[in-house]
Amino acid sequence: MTAQLNPRGDVAVLVPAAGSGVRLGPGGPKALRPLDGEPLLVHAVRRIAAAPSVRLIVVAAPPDGLDAVRAMLDPVAPVRVVPGGAHRQESVAGALAAVPRDLGIVLVHDAARALTPPELVESVAAAVRGGCPAVIPVLPVVDTIKEVGPHDLVRGTVDRAALRSVQTPQGFRHDVLAKAHAAASDPLTDDAGLVEKAGIPVTCVPGSELAMKITRPLDLILAEALLRVAARVR
Ligand code: CTP
Ligand code: MG
What we know:
Blueprint: E1 11-16, E2 34-35, E3 38-39, H1 40-49, E4 54-61, H2 66-73, E5 80-83, H3 88-96, E6 105-108, H4 118-129, E7 134-140, E8 146-148, E9 154-157, E10 164-166, E11 170-173, H5 174-183, H6 191-197, E12 203-206, H7 217-233
Parallel strand pairs: 1-4, 1-6, 4-5, 7-12
Antiparallel strand pairs: 2-3, 6-11, 7-10, 7-11, 8-9
Cytidine-5'-triphosphate binds at residues 16-23, 30-31, 60, 84-88, 91, 110-112, 213, 215.
């Protein structure tokens, strides 16, 4: 069934989905590869569309696959599809340009985090609505982290207590994200990094294990298992 977005919602979600998925191995753009019979992007958009505050979803798709992406998302939810760029940051900037000014909150969410629950979309949006200019969902780091120098020699051990793994969706006041992108020079892997560079405070909220990024082949296997567990829980 096609989801309806909330016409009174105050949130736009940008979905960068134009990456090639090199680390997943051969097989076409990652966002279009199947997980349990459906493209990752379909899983991601279905969950975003189920978040009650969302009024607009903009997908940055592989430029040569725009029509295919529109066709696959048509039965899922109403979305705008724009061509992605050579780097993630360019894909986000292209999607951001399609968001009307009156939408006060903009979230940026990787298609590769296909199983992110709608509740996380809502909690990030709620923190921005509550007054935080920039919000990131995070998890504690479980491994011991070492800094390593030349010749594989350990330089030191980083204090794990102060570290967090960062997920998406990352949420921003619309004007804050627009200014950060306008000022961006080097491509970064996340949008909060641009906002940090501008000296704006970034607030952490609890992330979700379901928001894992599907990056390597093992992640696809883990995601399929998570999908089965989630189906049993519901
Ligand atoms: N992305 C994008 N445009 C790009 C590069 C990445 O929209 N030029 C998107 C990806 O589609 C993904 C998200 O950014 O949803 C996070 O990137 P990543 O996990 O690195 O995906 P890929 O770039 O596809 O994977 P890889 O780096 O292994 O090639
Ligand atoms: Mg990448």
